[in-house]
Amino acid sequence: MVNRREFALGAASLGLLTLAPGANAQGKRVFRAANPNAVLDAQQAFLTCGRHPKLGYFEAEGVDLEYVNMSSIVQAMMSIATNQTDTGSLAPALYLPAIAKERSLGLIAAYNWLPRNANIVVVNADSPIKSIKDTVGKRIGIRNQGDGGIAQLQLIYSELGLPTADINFVPVGDVGLAATALKDNKVDAFVTFDTVGGRIEALGFAIRYLPLPPQYARLGSGWFGFRKSDLKEHRAQVVSFCRAAAKSTLFAYTNLAQAISIHWALYPDSRPKSKSEDESRKEIETILGQRRNNWIRWPDDSDQRFGASTAAEWKTMIEITAKSTNNPQLPQQIGDVSGVFTNELVDEINRFDREAVIRQAREFRL
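The chain above was modelled as a monomer; its predicted structure follows.
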């Protein structure tokens, strides 16, 4: 949850300087993307691949992408609000409380880049647990007592009609520590993100992913946020950026191996130097194994457009956040969900030839 002090500190750490939209030597609009991970690795290949001259997705749209490293998600969000960056991924658990407390923030979620739920529940590969219903009464691993996985599992249980009180959550740390806790039977299951599951697998631990309930699985996880003023004053450029992002995502989903190669070609320092290229590739492909599928709509989704989300989805996320932040007034504080997300650009974003991108991805070799 973001309180007023955190908001003020986040803004102050960036300064209140207002910057004009950036441009490179060719006069293209350069979208500065806030990167809260502070490290540019191949997890961003779904976006970066479109910058390569052989694909030219950003070039064709008259825009470009530049990452700006940040130390936290809060700082990244504040950087967009204060014009230090132009876009970045909004996490509803932090974005919604910030909007509720600071109406002047001026941000809006305009492109759903991660349309599936990125949360997972995993068990040892040989565990007798076959479904989430089987976890009732078991020891559930989380990273720490403040972990968002607590609210996520409670929501999963609610959809399945399972008791949400007195779940036995056990803090076990992240990645290797969590994997060891599973292996040593200190916990029976672990709630985390898809990329963390991939990192556990990359370390050599055998795990199995439990099926998520259908409505929960369809909740989006990540949105590109923009300033509302940018949507009004530079609408065409925002559309162009998101269209290039959609093409890049489709390419990376279709040919992940080449998207990773492109990312390393564009950002050679992002490939781990302590491992061979084959080792690095195997690791990142394992990490992105689950995330890759979450970039794309399910075949039976009623809306197949890149970037789209729904009011019902956002209302559900507001309810989740109200529970996880212990703020039952959050829905009233936010009011109409049209103030936190928009689909107004989505039709324009999707005006490109999907089949042409898929063919290019299948045939592409760097």
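Confidence is low (pLDDT under 50) at residues 1-20.
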